[in-house]
Amino acid sequence: MKITISEVNKYVGEEVIIGAWLANKRSSGKIAFLQLRDGTGFIQGVVVKAEVDEEVFQKAKSITQETSLYVTGVVREDERSPFGYELTVTNIDVIHESVDYPITPKEHGTEFLMDHRHLWLRSKRQHAVMKIRNEIIRATYEFFNDRGFAKVDPPILTGSAPEGTTELFATKYFDEDAYLSQSGQLYMEAAAMALGKVFSFGPTFRAEKSKTRRHLIEFWMIEPEMAFTEHEESLKVQEEYVSHIVQSALKNCQLELTTLGRDVSKLENIKAPFPRISYDEAIEFLLEKGFDDIKWGDDFGAPHETAIAESYDKPVFITNYPKGIKPFYMQPAPDRDDVVLCADLIAPEGYGEIIGGSERIHDYNLMKQQIEAHGLNSGAYEWYLELSKYGSVPHSGFGLGLERTVAWISGVEHVRETIPFPRLLNRLYP
Ligand code: 4AD
Ligand code: MG
């Protein structure tokens, strides 16, 4: 019976065949321990000299790291293993030998590992992070599907720049200028007027010259957009959504979180509601904390966000930022027009902003004025302006950065480990 490692719990006491790679190996004169991986999981195979043909034992002793194999063995429960099962190996067939695998069990520098990302992905740690990423994506679809949102796919080649014109990847679209999408938001607004509640999930691009642990050039964003929805209602969706993905990862990725050494006690109480402070309060707080480099009207940097987040054991919403530091489409607050109805959600433990969201302007004249005031080439925004011309309604939405969220939940320091092939300031390879 050919099975995968993820299925061994159903075959205790039975002889099975598993297609696997040799991740690592230890052996003595009498016994060999094979660390096997097949993509679905990791299991230890035990080869006892006295119990197998001499040829099988010699093979077990000589196989090299990352050689591909068909391993035959009997599944046993094993309390000492974190996985709970072991394989008592009876036979080994080599499929393809791997010679001089570059990533050995010794320590390697980050640049070396990044140059070998195509192979580094096979490691236990990277495998765990990718599984957590996958679980967050699964839980995202579950959350929005359960609440009646339709998945809509905005284009990647666009003529507009919702988040400002400084960080664009320009390309030629035959004879026209085009950009790689910074955010699907404007298209999602159109979709919300057609389908009510929508969400997107796709790659977005920022030509940011930032070399920090939170910045990627290409990252994946989840962007929900809701018609007939005010900012306050959107905040509730955001906190419930983030709670759902954290609780799903805790429930379905226990082994992976253990592999990563994640302190899960820091995740267990991530449940809605989340605390909120206004931008005004945040400025006061920072001044009290001795940040004298900040004044009203400035945007927050990573140290500011971290200082604010440290006061809470849950993600915190910073609401109502000054109009001047936010994009053109945000709805002014009803009681004062120097701040907008928006919020950034700051993750705990120094992981920074994971969500940016707002209520959108739905007044035609105000929108027209904003597009002009921001010097946006109005031709490219004509279609967008028409959304507030024909049956405009209050609507709100947000964007969650997948990689920062995966980094936080996994407890990995840098976003480069949270996406299969990171695109960084100095890296397009592999
Ligand atoms: O705050 P941002 O720029 O918001 C938007 O793009 C809105 N149009 C979203 C919307 O309302 N539909 O980006 C949203 C999130 C950030 O909070 C952050 O998590 C992530 O995207 N993000 C990045 N992640 C990795 N690398 C980068 N360079 C990122 N820039 C933003
Ligand atoms: Mg933002």
Query: Describe the biggest sheet?
Result: 8 strands, mixed
Radius of gyration: 26 Å
Shape: elongated
Percent of residues in helices: 25-40%
Taking all residues together, what is the mean pLDDT? 97
When the domains are counted, the total is 2
Distance between the termini: 37 Å
Structural class designation: alpha+beta
**What is the strand arrangement across the widest sheet?**
7-11-12-17-16-15-14-13
Number of helices: 13
Along the chain, the helix and strand elements come as EEEEHEEHHHEEEEHEEHHHEHHEEEHHEH
CATH architecture of the largest domain: 2-Layer Sandwich
Describe the secondary structure blueprint for this structure.
Blueprint: E1 2-3, E2 15-27, E3 31-37, E4 42-48, H1 54-62, E5 68-77, E6 85-96, H2 110-115, H3 117-120, H4 124-146, E7 150-151, E8 157-158, E9 170-173, E10 176-180, H5 185-195, E11 197-205, E12 218-227, H6 231-252, H7 254-259, H8 265-268, E13 276-278, H9 279-288, H10 302-309, E14 316-319, E15 342-347, E16 352-360, H11 364-373, H12 378-387, E17 395-401, H13 402-410
Parallel strand pairs: 1-2, 4-6, 7-11, 13-14
Antiparallel strand pairs: 2-3, 2-5, 3-4, 5-6, 8-10, 9-10, 11-12, 12-17, 14-15, 15-16, 16-17
Characterization of the model:
Strand 5 and strand 6 form a beta hairpin. Helices cover 31% and strands 26% of the residues. It contains 13 helices and 17 strands. The two termini are 37 Å apart. The mean pLDDT is 97. The strands form 3 sheets. The protein has an 8-stranded mixed β-sheet with strand order 7-11-12-17-16-15-14-13. The chain has 430 residues and is an alpha+beta fold. Bound molecules: 4-amino-1,4-dioxobutan-2-aminium adenosine-5'-monophosphate and magnesium ion. 4-amino-1,4-dioxobutan-2-aminium adenosine-5'-monophosphate (4AD) binds next to strand 12, strand 16, strand 17 and helix 13. 4-amino-1,4-dioxobutan-2-aminium adenosine-5'-monophosphate binds next to strand 12, strand 16, strand 17 and helix 13.
